Design the sequence.
């Protein structure tokens, strides 16, 4: 089958454990693009946190960000399609965050905000500090999310984290029963919460339809539960070797871990080798 688009998750997929793109992966993606196959980032990250990799790879396509909450065009610096949280949804969600005492970050139109730090955020901040200023994402500490929400015009998502699984499950149940928002696991103990109906698969389906690309012409690669629908829908869904068994079970192929040349191997076998 001839694929027209490679859809790539970032963390745990395109990025290794040091948040770097492996040299073999960069080379394979360059060869894929030289043959006319397009490459798109499809991530749970805010566009400012995905930008360093979009820039490194020299991509042209917009990126799908915040688990499908929006499609972002880096060339024009604007969202092309989006379904952000409403202010009322954000206010109600913040009340549940306070009730359940769950660590949370709020993703604004142009930056990520936090009140306190958790291990994942500390790692993100450490990574950000290594980047050149021109590609460094904006990550702001704020005194009060309540005050922040009243100042924002666009709220893409909340991302929440807790190592206590029963506490997280109670939090999710409260959200789903009372607010009806989309809850997607994007990492170990890390939950992304967006407006109902948002997902990587749905936003990708919308974009490829506009481009005249069929889902069976997409090769998608991911590692987390928020990638599962995309992997099922794609003509070739590839799960990373470091992904959970349930993610691997919905894929057509399982490759090596994100710390191997698994992506390069897949591209060589299914895209670059004449079949």
Sequence:
């Amino acid at each position: 089958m001839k694929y027209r688009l490679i859809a790539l998750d970032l963390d745990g997929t395109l990025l290794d454990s040091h948040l770097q793109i492996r040299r073999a992966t960069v080379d394979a993606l360059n060869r894929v693009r030289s043959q006319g196959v397009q490459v798109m980032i499809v991530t749970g990250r805010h566009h400012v946190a995905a930008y360093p990799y979009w820039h490194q790879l020299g991509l042209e396509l917009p990126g799908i960000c915040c688990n499908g909450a929006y499609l972002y065009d880096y060339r024009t610096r604007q969202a092309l399609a989006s379904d952000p949280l409403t202010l009322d949804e954000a206010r109600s969600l913040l009340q549940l965050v306070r009730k359940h005492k769950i660590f949370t970050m709020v993703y604004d139109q142009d930056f990520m905000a936090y009140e306190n730090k958790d291990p994942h955020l500390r790692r993100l901040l450490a990574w950000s500090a290594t980047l050149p200023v021109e590609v460094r994402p904006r990550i702001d500490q704020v005194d009060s999310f309540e005050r922040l929400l009243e100042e924002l015009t666009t709220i893409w998502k909340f991302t929440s984290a807790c190592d206590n699984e029963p506490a997280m499950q109670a939090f999710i149940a409260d959200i789903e029963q009372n607010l009806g928002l989309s809850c997607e696991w994007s990492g170990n103990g890390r939950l992304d919460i967006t407006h109902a109906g948002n997902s990587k698969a749905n936003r990708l389906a919308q974009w490829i339809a506009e481009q005249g690309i069929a889902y069976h012409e997409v090769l998608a690669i991911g590692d987390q539960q928020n990638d599962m629908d995309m992997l099922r829908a794609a003509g070739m869904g590839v799960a990373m070797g470091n992904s959970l068994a349930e993610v691997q079970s919905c894929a057509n192929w399982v490759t090596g871990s994100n710390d191997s040349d698994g992506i390069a191997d897949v591209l060589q076998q299914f895209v670059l080798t004449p079949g």
Observations:
- The first strand starts at residue 5 and ends at 8.
- The chain has two domains: 5-82+199-272, 87-194.
- The domain at 5-82+199-272 is CATH 3.40.50.1000 (Rossmann fold).
- The radius of gyration is 18 Å.
